Amino acid sequence: MPVSVAIPSLGSKFQDYRDPIPGDSYNWGPTINANNIIYFTFHHSVTKQTAKVDGNWKKECDTIANLHINQGWGGVGYRFIICSDGTVAYVGDLSHGGSAVLNKNDIMFSACFVGDFTKELPTAIQVHSSHLLAKHFITNMPQYPKLDSWDDIKGHKNFMATACPGSNWDTGGDTLRDRIVNDRWDGYPDPKPAISTPTPPPPPPTPSEDYKAKYTALLSEFETYKKTSDKEISDKAKKIIELQGKIEKATIALS
Ligand SMILES: [Zn+2]
Known about the structure:
Layout (H helix, E strand, L loop, with lengths): L13 E3 L22 E6 L6 H4 L2 H14 L9 E3 L5 E3 L17 E6 L10 H16 L13 E3 L20 H7 L28 H44 L1
The protein binds zinc ion (ZN).
């Protein structure tokens, strides 16, 4: 029975490519018993990273599948291919183990990065995509009950003498394994993941001023002031006239 996989965290970067990829994607390798799956294992392809430039992730997948078919395999050996543009292609059905780690394809699922990590680094977006892929398997796939911890994340060379997946898998300070686990891709080559930064909330709408009310109020204040002012001026004039009259009378009385 084919196993459908949905990884919403990857959005459009997750692609079901089981049908179009060359070879048999559904029946190659050992039949999987879900209870026996204990590892999720990473590889590198030692093929060219071209999708990071031209976006053609299908070509990167086809190249790997054709290499496998040409060496006599029934189909692509991996379950997933992590292309250099960050696309995670579902290429080998999870009902079967394919061929990835000798004699261990019934206890693990394998995902392969496109690139040669003895000579170059994964792209930043490949690291981010691989983190989301591994995280999905250990946190959102209860049908594989023993695949439930970051400790279950392995590299090909953890099982046998091989350069795969590159010189810096899990020994030395800043390792690829550590970057996958912690979703750290800073300083790695473009393209970078389009992490959506939270957009700041729009400023609260300024209360729209009622200009007509303001105009009416100003007009009324103006009229009131004018009246008051007129009254004060006339009061003052009356007072002056009154005082002048009194002074006049006093002057007459003095003379
Ligand atoms: Zn490998």
